[in-house]
Amino acid sequence: MAEPVPAQMIDPAIFEQLQAKIDEDSQVREDIREILQTLERQGRTVQSILSRAHATRSQNLSPVVEAAENAIREQVGTINKLAEVASKYPYYKYNFMWTRDIQNACFAILLCGWLGGFNAPGNQFQQGRLLTIEETGAILNVPVNLKDRDAFHLAIEEYLHALISLIEELARLAVNSVTLGDYERPPQISRFVKDLHAGFQILNLKNDALRRRSDAIKYSIKKIEDVVYDLSLRNLLPVQ
Amino acid sequence: MMGGTKRDHDGRSRSPPPASPFMPIFETFRNELDEHHDRRERIIKASRDVTAASKKMIFSLQRVKKVRGELPERINKEVQGHFNTIVTTLESISGDLQGINAWRYRRQITGGLQEFIEAATFKHYLETQTLLTVDAAAAAVPGGVQLTEDDYLLGIFDLVGEMMRFAITTMATSGELPGNTADSEDGREISESNILSDLRELRTQFAALDTTTSSGNGLGRDVEKKLEVMNTCVEKVENAVYGLIIRGRERPKGWMPDLGDDSGRGREPVESY
Prior knowledge:
The structure holds 2 protein chains of 2 kinds. Chain A is mainly alpha-helical. Chain A contains 8 helices and no strands. Chain A folds into 2 domains: 13-154, Methane Monooxygenase Hydroxylase, Chain G, domain 1 (Up-down Bundle), CATH 1.20.58.190; 158-240, Translin, domain 2 (Methane Monooxygenase Hydroxylase, Chain G, domain 1). Chain B is mostly helical. Chain B has helices spanning 23-61, 73-93, 101-104, 106-128, 134-140, 149-174, 195-208, 218-247, 262-265, 268-271. Chains A and B meet through α1, α3, α5 and α6 of A and α1, α3, α6 and α7 of B. Chain A: One of its GO terms (biological process) is RNA metabolic process.
């Protein structure tokens, strides 16, 4: 026939290029996973320190908070190492790998902050504080809600997940405060959590994990309200 | 904002409960999340539109009768029309996929891009009997939308299905194996290069691709499934060519080979993945 026969259907460079890309991608995941292992271990240490808050009276909290702060600072070092590696690649390409760990780290910071940690120097030891996403980002030493450039950061969704974890943890703390004989804390927790819940209610969440978890905030609220109700019924609430 | 003032039993106005001190924070979050969801939805819709237009492109291309050479004018016009739709659609969301957002909505856009790559590489194959390279495919995506190697790879898998369909239809209607340059009396001779050899080459290349390291993520899973479908496609063409050789020119023109259960739904197993 007239047409010349093409030399080859497939330029061999095509599949070489694809294979190279696949291999490069696996290497990146490997590097990230290695850092995440350290991060997870440090995260568990932080959580175990913070869990002592459930069995420690308010006035004796500062050593617990201090220990947690130090453990968190160590964790931040690892997160900064992760940020350095991850920022070489598109943020959302590998974000799924670390988002849980970052949410947990963020939650630890929020809880520690609520218990009186991460206070500005010179400030009085103060409980019941909400660290904003900016303050949390500053402690993590990473930017927040980055839009104008592609690099590692703390995303709004991650902060919101951490807030929900905080609410769940405070519900547990409300119960345990009563056991410790602290009747002041449950109403304080109740006000704080209700204020947060009001915030969550103005968000238009889609059908995702955040939506499911935020729908469950009401159960935490009920748990806390039950504690406050039990106290008020027995005239145990402190007079305001 | 409020319709009236709430009053208690005695008609005195009641002061509203104090607003949450965290409201301003959450208002910022709400705006950010709304923007994100709007973008996401625009991209999902665009991806669907690109998929639909690409499918139409492929339908038109399936009416081509031979490989290598310019497309017949009517078909070319149709294909161009669908391509223009894709250009308009992708250009409309180009801004949503810039910078950090290029990867944020990967999962939403990848379906449309894969289908587009299937159409673009099929067109390229019909015209040149070669495989469009990754870089050329990336350059062919309109609107500055980023094409990843994964999109390309998964699109090529589907190309195999289209080549199979094209080969079988052509053999059934004209009794010619597309790309066969040997011209023997009884039609039993087959040149070294033809659509079957191309399909086999693709199969060989795919089989050699090592995705075990990415078996944990989406690509590994997708590849495994698509490999199976691709092997079936190549085998179908092998069987059809066997029939063509064994029966040669004794087979009357226009006679359709019995494809069994697949005759009507032959495309489905390919398309459904």
